[in-house]
Amino acid sequence: MIDDKIKIKCSKCSTLFGERAQRVRNGFQKQCPNCFKLITFDTSSEDANIRRALKSAREVRQAVADLAHAAGKDGAVTS
Q: Is 0.90 surpassed by the pTM of this model?
């Protein structure tokens, strides 16, 4: 089982916190639990922490989809 949480680093206070990869997409907003800064995830952001989180989330979603696809193939019953 793949852990579907990714780590996000706040640009203001440098705190690391987690969020589910399914939620972190372009346009998603999350408040830092430490300093309460609102972080908006945008692919055109100049903030490397935001781009890194979006890339990690995309990779985790792809890995989960690949696993589900492989499990579907292996578990398929033919008649």
A: no
